[in-house]
């Protein structure tokens, strides 16, 4: 029994190490160890592999979804070497989501106790305060300031982009390497803020919680990100529907009543006005470049629809690369259209996404028509199978499963690309937290560590 407890505890330590490396990835790579950013990225992936191999020694049974993903990774890995680009390292990198990522979600859920979600959630909420303040500060500072350093060639491109689209200002990423990373984190942070505010207010300092929520909404114009607005507005609409028939709807209504006047006052400051003007400039330019003469609202909604729906439909009906080439039946090979794989193969066009950026097309381009469709089904099914359970659980006390679902859904399927290392790793951490929430609908103070493998 003692050995089983020690093994379970060591696995939890590894999971926490992965969690912290992911959460503070940008701080380590931008400011503390900027000369070792690639090494830090590799260490993060190595810890994920250790979690899977160490946890795999104690978990002999995966669900059919994880098994299907692993077999899909094995088959596409072999085909990449036989009929694809043939690069072993790139093939391993491209197969990481299937061979390591899906089992990682399951093992995180088995290795964590329910109360670990509260601990990690509080860390995420406190970190969101720092991230929000840093975004506001970055927006106000010159682009060549050390606080706006992005690392490597990203920093070299930033000045040209800022002058052309952002009135010479900077699109801040907070503590992260890229604004899209910050947007994913913001959605997860908002999920935990909502959960603690509505159902678990006793687990953390309420004034810190209030400040975290207020700062997150104040940050919206300073982030200059359509993706972040889409995430926040979509989540708030989802949350309103979720609590419509629940006893906490009055608490949510009071939060809106109190916060809206405060947000209005903040929005009248000179910094906030400049942020709103800059954000609208960014929207206008992006819409003009992508869709020609159309309104900002219409173009933005079209962009969201294209990324979330159209590109995935095209992946099934008429897959083509970014250069308009047809996709071979067995694909070009795993990892070729990831940022890391593209650079290793010397393909630096399209920011490293040599074949396709968004994941519906990217997966089919790399895996081919037949296997690409199968992998897309596995990935979508892995998330959508929980929809009935989410809506059953939302009528019970303790709504964490339902509240975490949007972050799980978006990081796994909608509007993200696993061709980017951070977004891929963040998806599996979010997936692990979501699966952990399914263990029990009511929080418990203690769960026997020896029994956690039976949950």
Q: Characteristics of this structure?
A:
disordered C terminus; 70% helix; mainly alpha; 455 residues
Q: Concise description?
A:
Helix content is 70%, strand content 0%.
Description:
With 455 residues, the chain is mainly α. The chain has 20 helices and no strands. The protein has helices spanning 2-23, 25-32, 37-56, 64-83, 88-94, 96-111, 114-140, 152-165, 179-198, 206-223, 226-242, 249-267, 270-291, 296-317, 339-344, 359-367, 369-384, 387-393, 400-412, 421-437. Helix 6 runs parallel beside helix 20 (421-437) and helix 19 packs antiparallel against helix 20. The longest helix is centred in the first third of the chain and has 27 residues, at 114-140. It is globular and about 60 Å long. The two termini are 17 Å apart.
* Alpha-beta classification: mainly alpha
Helix count from the secondary structure assignment: 20
Detail the poorly predicted runs.
Answer: 156-168, 443-455
Helix content: over 70%
Number of E-type strands:
0
Mean pLDDT rating? 80
Shape: globular
Instruction: Report the order of strands and helices.
Output: HHHHHHHHHHHHHHHHHHHH
Query: Using only CA atoms, what is the Rg?
Result: 22 Å
End-to-end distance: 17 Å
Strand % is: under 5%
* Assembly state of the chains shown: single chain
Largest sheet: none
């Amino acid at each position: 029994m003692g050995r089983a407890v020690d093994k379970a505890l060591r696995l939890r330590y590894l999971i926490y190490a992965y969690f912290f490396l992911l959460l503070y990835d940008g701080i380590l790579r931008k400011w503390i160890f900027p000369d070792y950013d690639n090494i830090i990225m590799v260490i993060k992936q190595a810890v994920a592999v250790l979690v899977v191999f160490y946890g795999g020694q104690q978990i002999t049974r995966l669900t059919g979804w994880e098994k299907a993903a692993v077999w899909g990774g094995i088959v596409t890995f072999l085909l990449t070497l036989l009929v694809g680009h043939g690069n072993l390292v790139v093939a391993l990198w491209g197969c990481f989501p299937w061979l390591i990522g899906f089992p990682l979600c399951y093992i995180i859920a088995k290795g964590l106790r329910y109360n670990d979600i509260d601990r990690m959630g509080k860390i995420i909420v406190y970190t969101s305060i720092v991230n929000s303040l840093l975004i506001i500060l970055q927006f106000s500072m010159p682009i060549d300031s050390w606080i706006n350093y992005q690392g490597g060639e990203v920093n070299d491109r930033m000045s040209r982009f800022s002058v052309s689209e952002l009135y010479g200002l900077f699109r801040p990423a907070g503590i992260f390497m890229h604004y899209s990373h910050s947007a994913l984190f913001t959605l997860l942070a908002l999920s935990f803020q909502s959960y603690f505010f509505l159902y678990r207010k006793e687990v953390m300092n309420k004034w810190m919680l209030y400040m975290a929520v207020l700062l997150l909404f104040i940050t919206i114009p300073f982030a200059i990100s359509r993706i972040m607005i889409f995430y926040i507005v979509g989540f708030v609409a989802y949350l309103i529907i979720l609590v419509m028939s629940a006893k906490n709807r009055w608490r949510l209504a009071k939060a809106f009543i109190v916060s809206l006047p405060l947000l209005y006052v903040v929005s009248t400051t000179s910094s906030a006005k400049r942020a709103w003007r800059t954000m609208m400039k960014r929207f206008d330019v992006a819409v003009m470049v992508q869709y020609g003469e159309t309104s900002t609202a219409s173009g933005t909604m079209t962009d969201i629809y294209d990324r979330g729906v159209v590109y995935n439909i095209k992946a099934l009906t008429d897959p083509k690369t970014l250069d308009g080439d047809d996709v071979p039946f067995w694909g070009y090979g795993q990892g070729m259209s990831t940022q890391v794989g593209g650079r290793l193969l010397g393909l630096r066009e399209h920011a490293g996404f040599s074949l396709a950026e968004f994941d519906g097309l990217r997966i089919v381009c790399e895996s081919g028509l037949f296997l690409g469709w199968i992998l897309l089904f596995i990935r979508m099914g892995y998330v959508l199978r929980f929809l009935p359970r989410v809506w059953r659980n939302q009528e019970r006390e303790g709504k964490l499963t339902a509240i975490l679902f949007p972050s799980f859904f978006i990081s796994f399927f909608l509007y993200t690309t696993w061709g980017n290392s951070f977004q891929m790793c963040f998806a599996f951490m979010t997936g692990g937290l979501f699966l952990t929430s399914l263990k029990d609908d009511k929080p418990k103070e203690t769960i026997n560590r020896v029994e956690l493998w039976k949950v």
